[in-house]
Amino acid sequence: MQEANMSRRAMLASLGMAGAALATGGIMGANAGSVNESVYGAGTAYIDIEDYGAVPGGVTDCSAAIQSAINAVQGGLSGTVRIPKGKWKAKNLVVENCTIAFDDGAVLVLELGANDNGMLLRSNTQLLNATFEVTNSASPPDGNFGNVFRLGNYEAVPGEVHSGIRVHGAKLYCHNTVRKSQAVEILGQVSDFVLDDIALYGPFDAGIIIHWGGDVGSSNAHNKEVTYSYHPHDGVLRNIRFFPYNGTAGNFGIILSAVYDITVENVVFDGWIRPLWILPGDVYAQVATDAEKTKVQTGIVIRDLAIWDPPARVSNKGAAPIFIQGASATVRTPLGPTYTLDSISSVHVSGVTYALSPGKTYSGSPLLLVYYSSGVTVERVTASGFENVAEYLALVEYSNDCRISYAGATGAGSRLYGCINCAVDARTTGTTSTQTGGKSGLTAAGTMLNATLTAPLAIGAATVSLSAVSTTLTVPKGHRIWLTGDKSVMIAKTIQLSATAPNTVQIEPAQVSESSGAAAVVKVVCSGITLTGSYSKWEQGIMLSDVNGARVEAQFLLNGKYDVILSGSRADNIRIDKSSFVSGGQKNNGTLLANVHLGTTGDRISVTSCGFEPQGSPLVNRHIVGSAELSNVSISDNDFGGSTLEPIAVGPQSAAASQRGKVSIYGNTCKIGAAPVAAGTIQGRYVGGSFHGIASAAPTTGSWRTGDLLVNEAPAVGSPKGWRCTATGTPGTWVSEGNL
Questions:
Q1: Residue 2 CB: number of other CB atoms within 10 A?
Q2: Cβ–Cβ contacts within 10 Å for residue 677, how many?
Q3: What residue range is the signal peptide (predicted)?
Q4: 611 and 476 in one domain?
């Protein structure tokens, strides 16, 4: 317990003064005796609910009496309704143009049925120092009901706008034995609202939901087709705490569904299952008002979250403690699903602390999931206590233009899958188990779908017709459909490809043509990704599997088998640059152990300006090793320091690979007396259109061109100076340039 307490104190310190304040009773402090003066003001008149017939004790229904007091304020008798010390039973209170202030020790007791709320907060309302105790006798039919308090309306009516709402210093206690209601909903046409210094206790199914509203109807609201929608905006959630109550915590903490310009800061989740869920809703792209259509899921800023002891959950990646989704969960209009991949999106999350106390367990989902999203940044994430958890720390799938940075590790590392133009900066150290247990600190991978063209493709075409797709999958825009002869077209709009029905895919104007019946491959692979940071004590530091376009600039230390490995069916356009490799090969089991393993078919790959330091007797048996099917590879300007190894062993290339382009090896430094490359590997580079290198003999394999030149790497009197190719071929015709 002492270690857990110390961990939490450290986390609160990381939240700053506001975090410390909220953990010790809130911004108003544990002694809120001065609240009355600060709320009412010196000499301010107020209306006391007892003067309107309210009876303390929490048994008598005081709804009518309290509503009468509120109505009196709205009628201009005073500016503040006072809730005195004691328990007061009420529900379905409507508050507008009014301040309600609770004395210390004042509690509103809510016994809510399926169609009840505690309070409806409308425009120009303040709720100060409130305490609620809620019990729900039945689950509500939709988000319009079952709330401690609600702002706005799920069934949003044109012209019904709510703004200028402030809630400060509230405590909400849930007395339910099961999770079946939400604490707070903010719905539809609501703007200019602030919730500050709020604490939620116990098994709420959801804590705070900020959600679009529209013409959902008064019944079956979750399923009705929608023709217009409104979206909460210009709101702040600040200094919010989510705690267990009587040993039970809540489910969802904060849900942001189809909102914009929302700030959330200084929030603690203690034991809640799904602290933060951000999604685009299911209507806005088609039916939002013109003023809001391009704004939804933009301007979302989340700062300084502490997630303590998230519990194990049923295995489901969508149950991640932080889940940022860019795809609509359901479809409420005839036009089909919406994706932030196809529109402007801006979500910025920073300063997240995950902590798992000693003796606690976690399983069931990654800690962070970014799914079918674009424009998402998640940075300054730290995770401690999860090193032996068999789940991903960060999982980013089918997303574009996202940035993720974190420090820490789980037992499964992290993964990018089918992502475009994404960047990950990780500071991750595994364990002795991950060092030899087949795990990678970071994996970038993807998939490929086979298909057939069902109509001719003409140059300039804006669509392509596909059938017989091997797997049903939603494919984000930006991925490519590859045709015969290395021709391709780019997908212009995210589409769910069907394996059983014909597909018409929107593409960028085609620059190539293709005949009907031709084979096609939809490659949903990582491309344009950037991977930085440090990776230590993993069997593989970084694995790139079926990747087309990646830059790696990182530090690698004490990894088990490979620091960087290219795998899968192929890897192209890979640049490993300005990286350091120290003390690899810790698995030390007699197998191939290499800093960089170019272990698949690939084209246009470079390893440049890197430093390799074996730290004493090397455990790796090669620094850089590559397959015979690599082409247009450049290994240059690397420093192999004091290594005693022959550092580079790539090839010899197959005839097909060498015809596409040679492996260029030049400008590398190594220990005096050490061979720079292994036997059979040729050093050299292109000069103009010819390859110039050094070798021990004229080639007998591979494709060579007229003008290629190889100098004898072991010159001696009476031996050839070198060899020149005089006729292109495999291996071509080679002529000695004469003896020394």
A1: 7
A2: 22
A3: 1-23
A4: no
Residue pointed to by tokens 């809130």: 26
Judge if 605 and 667 occupy the same domain: yes
Q: Average pLDDT of 706-719? A: 94
Q: What angle do CA 728, 734, 739 make, to 5 degrees?
A: 155
**What is the rounded CA–CA span in Å between residue 88 and residue 60?**
8
Confidence band of 342 (pLDDT split at 50, 70, 90):
confident
Task: Provide the terminal-to-terminal Cα distance of the chain, rounded to the nearest Å.
Answer: 80
Question: What pLDDT, on the 0 to 100 scale, is given for residue 44?
Answer: 54
- Pick the residue with more confidence: 194 or 229? 194
CB 210 within 8 A of CB 255: yes
Residue 362 domain-assigned? Answer: no
* Spatial contact of 603 and 634, defined as CB atoms under 8 Å apart: no
| Other CB atoms within 10 A of residue 210 CB | 28
- Is 564 in the same domain as 692? no
340 φ, ψ (degrees, to nearest 5): -65, -15
- Tell me the pLDDT band of 676, cut-offs 50, 70 and 90: confident
> What 8-state DSSP symbol labels residue 509?
P
- Position with higher pLDDT, 14 vs 279: 279
**368-371/322-325 β-pairing:** parallel
Burial of 728 (0-12, 13-18, 19+ CB in 10 A): middle
Q: Which among 685, 704, 719 is the end of a domain? A: 685
Report pLDDT for 674: 80
Q: How many domains does the chain have?
A: 3
Which H or E run includes 450? strand 447-453
705 and 569: one domain? no
Handedness of CA 114, 118, 123, 129 (dihedral sign): negative
| 399, 573, 635 from 604: Cα distances, Å | 24, 5, 11
pLDDT of residue 283 exceeding 90, the answer is no
| Distance (Å) of CA 46 to CA 101, 128, 408, 712 | 10, 14, 53, 100
Output the pLDDT for position 642.
79
Q: For the purposes of burial, counting CB atoms within 10 Å of the CB of 108, is it exposed (0-12), middle (13-18) or buried (19 or more)?
A: buried
- What percent of the chain is predicted at pLDDT more than 90? 78
Whole-Å CA distances, 729 to 537, 631, 701: 46, 17, 10
Asked if residue 271 lies in contact with residue 241, where contact means CB atoms within 8 angstroms, the answer is no
Q: Three-state DSSP class for 436?
A: helix
What would the two tokens of residue 472 be? 């049903």
pLDDT at 24: 34
Q: Is residue 333 within 8 Å of 281, Cβ to Cβ? A: no
pTM of the model: 0.92
574 and 509 within one domain = no
User: Which domain, by its residues, includes 533?
Assistant: 527-685
Closest among 432, 465, 226, 233 to 335, alpha carbons compared: 226
Considering the domain boundaries, does residue 662 fall inside one? yes
In a domain, 541, yes or no: yes
Pairing of strands 162-174, 125-128: parallel
pLDDT digits (tens, 9 = 90+) for 269-281: 999 999 999 998 8
pLDDT over 80 (residue 334): no
pLDDT score at 117: 97
Same domain (yes/no): 696, 638: no
Report how far apart, in Å, the C-alpha atoms of 357 and of each of 310, 360, 387, 388, 654 are.
10, 6, 12, 12, 54
Q: Can the peptide bond before residue 141 be classed as cis, meaning omega within 30 degrees of 0? A: no
Domain co-membership, 577 together with 497: no
Pull the structure tokens for residue 119. 């309070």
Q: Is 180 within the bounds of a domain?
A: no
- Contact between 414 and 441 (Cβ < 8 Å): yes
Judge whether residue 95 has pLDDT over 60: yes
